[in-house]
Amino acid sequence: MAGTGERVKLSKLADEAGVSLSTVSKVLNGRPDVSAPTRAKVEAILDRQGYERRAGLPNRGALIELVFPELETAWAMEIIRGVENIARANGLSIVLTESGDRHSPSSSWIDGVLRRRPVGVVLVFSDLAADAKAKLRSRAIPFVVIDPAGDPAADVPSVGSANWSGGLAATRHLLELGHTRIAAITGRDDMMCSFARLDGYRSAMNAAGVDIDESLVRFGNFQVDGGRAIALELLSREDRPTAIFAGSDLQALGVIEAARTLGLRVPDDLSIVGYDNLQLAQWSSPALTTVHQPLTAMAEEAARLVIRLSDSPPESIPRMDLATQLVVRESTAAPAA
User: In this structure, is residue 177 part of a structural domain?
Assistant: First the structure.
């Protein structure tokens, strides 16, 4: 039951909005029987007054909301598996939502999550808009960003992985095999992880004293078609690379396809290292050497964190990066003599 001070504050908010106390309560609890203009007016006043609900209030749905920019990828399945593991262990269900792009969900998403009132939200984005964060916090709905594409704001809890170390390990492996003409196909040029993996590649090359041919460094899209298109160009050159570090397993599969199209054998004529270690990596032909990004473990940590935040506010904003690890399979070998 709300305390006296809270009831008085809500009464003042109701007076300012020109609505009843029960209407304010309905807005706070995400009830659908409030008109859109009234809801918007009440929420604007709640946000302006900085009203925050206490954690642990009743009427919270027994679910975790998981929000993606796109669901139809093998990468997304790893994230879903991790959140589902923790949700099941805690007697919770999952709501999957597809919204926005890699940077943030669309503005329409926030209304739905306020109605559903989940225990918390796990977002596969870089950040949230300030008004969306304020609305979630005013309803005591915690949120955590997983594998952020950019650098989240200082007030956003997040779980990621050591992308720089992964790029370093992948490139160092190729150097140790004897490759010096190594290309890098990273991800989109508006994503922090793309630059971090590329920085790891550059660090390994520089530490080995190997000059970097900038014409062999490309930004892709983390998808099969991106890897294939760029690899077809690079491998058609007279001075083609003998090895390629692809910034994702899907791009690496595109590189393998391009090599076959051009009559090149992997790894005899071309060594390839991917990134992510999706389940399909071990079943590719040849089996893909890749950097294991612990996607399932990252999702599990994010789900644990959002449940913990639903019980009590943190003393500081949690940030964690899980370790990556090179997995050597059959797509890499010493360069042909």
Answer: yes
Residues 9 and 132 in one domain: no
Q: Residue length, the chain?
A: 337
Q: Which domain holds residue 227?
A: 163-294
Provide the whole-model pTM.
0.78
Separation between Cα atoms, residue 272 and residue 260, nearest integer Å:
13
If one counts the domains in the chain, the total is: 3
Q: What is the pLDDT of residues 192-229, one digit of tens each?
A: 889 999 999 999 999 999 999 999 999 999 999 999 99
Closest CA to 290 of 271, 276, 301: 276
| Predicted confidence (pLDDT) at residue 104 exceeds the cutoff of 70 | no
> What share of the chain has pLDDT > 90, as a percent?
49
Phi, psi of 309, deg, nearest 5: -70, -25
Are residue 170 and residue 189 in the same domain, yes or no?
A: yes
Q: Tokens 């690899």 — which residue?
A: 231
Region of poorest pLDDT, from 53-57, 260-264, 277-281: 53-57
DSSP character string of 248-293: SHHHHHHHHHHHHHTT--TTTT-EEEEEE--GGGGGSSSPPEEEE-
Residue 173 half-sphere exposure toward CB, CA atoms < 13 A: 25
> 237: burial class by Cβ within 10 Å (0-12, 13-18, 19+)?
exposed
Listing DSSP states for 124-157 in one string gives: -SS---HHHHHHHHHTT--EEEES-SS---TT--
